[in-house]
Amino acid sequence: MMRGVLLFWMALFTLPPAVAGDTQLLMFELPNCAACAAFEADVGGTYDQTDEASVAPLRRLPFGSDPPGIALNGEVQVSPTFVLIRQGREIDRFVGYTRDEAFWMSLNRLLNQLD
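The structure corresponding to this sequence follows.
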């Protein structure tokens, strides 16, 4: 019995992102990125508690990574870049971070495309 439970949890956490969650907000970031640090200070600590996170949980990825099972529409060229994906395919993206108001406006523009 315990082995079955363990195998279930292992399978759940090793599923590709597109299978584990239908819609996600990917954040591609560089270490020591000032805009990324500003995002973290303004939004990052509370994002998981928002309505937007219930629709598109945030998944942070290293800049330049090529996440398996995700079809991006093009190369990520700016850090941070936020990419909305659904079922493993890019819906749209926005680049950079200046202030929280601009982030929420840009994110809502992306989320409105899911309807």
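Residues 35 and 97 are 5 Å apart (CA to CA).
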